[in-house]
Amino acid sequence: MYIKTTGAIMADHPKVKDYMTTEVNTVSPDNTVRDAIRLIRRTGHDGFPVVRDSRVIGYISAADMLEKSLDEKISNIMSRDMLVADTEMDMNDVARVIFRSGKSKLPVVDSNEHLRGIITNTDVIRSHIEKTSPQKVWTLKKTLEAIHNIHVDVVRETVNIDELIPTQPKVYADELDGRIYELKKGLAEPIVVIKKPDKLILVDGHHRVIAARKLGIKSMDAYVIPLGDDVRLGMEKTAASAGLHTLSDIKILDYAKHPLIEVTKRLKKNDENGLTDVAQ
């Protein structure tokens, strides 16, 4: 029996078809545990859709094969009750299903239950990182109006990225890979810019802009808030103090230098040196 996950189709929202992997490793119900273990060693994956005549009929995970004979057929131990997604499913709905069910991946099928791809929790995270919503722009608008006692408008227009003044000193290389992928697929959200008479201040979307620059893209879609020179912004002063004048001033940090990774490495090193007192 299938438990098929479905969700409302929402315009302008990324869909499963935009993020799924179409080249999927599968096993046949006639394969053995030995065959599946070989595939795990070769691919590094911990489970596979079970496919017969292009139709998904089950799923086999490493846990299913524990303490099973190497000659046991996959059809005898595979899970037949599973969650699957369809290509038009909204990624927000996929996120809910994956995190509430505890699944790490979902096979993607069409109306005939033919395998079309696979969607993973990593794809979900990638689809949500640095996602600009109208609510974020609205919050910025209301904040500017409250602080400076003015009325501001929000317009949608294309901006020249080489004219942007950054307000963020660093971006991370691993996130850039995700933004580059999205730009190539046409999935990037608009950036957020404050426009003054003589400058364009980048408020949100630094990873997207640097990714676009790497791809040779000269202009980007943006939510733009026009302001006069008489409105003095704290972010302008902070950026100037940090030496941020052009996009070239932004540092690209390798994933290994991410603050969370550094803290984890330091704790691990202290533990190995006997400096961590677990009794405390």
Characterize the structure shown.
- This protein is α/β, with parallel strands linked by helices.
- It has two domains: 2-127, Roll (CBS-domain), CATH 3.10.580; 130-257, Conserved hypothetical protein from pyrococcus furiosus pfu- 392566-001, ParB domain (Alpha-Beta Complex).
- It contains ten helices and 13 strands.
- It has helices at residues 16-19, 33-43, 74-77, 91-101, 121-128, 134-148, 173-185, 206-214, 234-241, 259-272, and strands at 2-4, 47-52, 55-61, 82-84, 105-109, 115-120, 155-160, 164-165, 170-172, 191-196, 199-204, 219-226, 251-253.
- The strands form five sheets. The chain has a five-stranded mixed β-sheet with strand order 7-12-10-11-8, with helices on one face. A two-stranded parallel sheet has the order 1-4. A two-stranded antiparallel ribbon has the order 2-3.
- A hairpin with a 2-residue loop joins strand 10 and strand 11.
- Helix 4 crosses helix 5 (121-128) and helix 7 packs across helix 8.
- The relative contact order is 0.12.
- Residues 1-12 and 275-280 have low confidence and may be disordered.
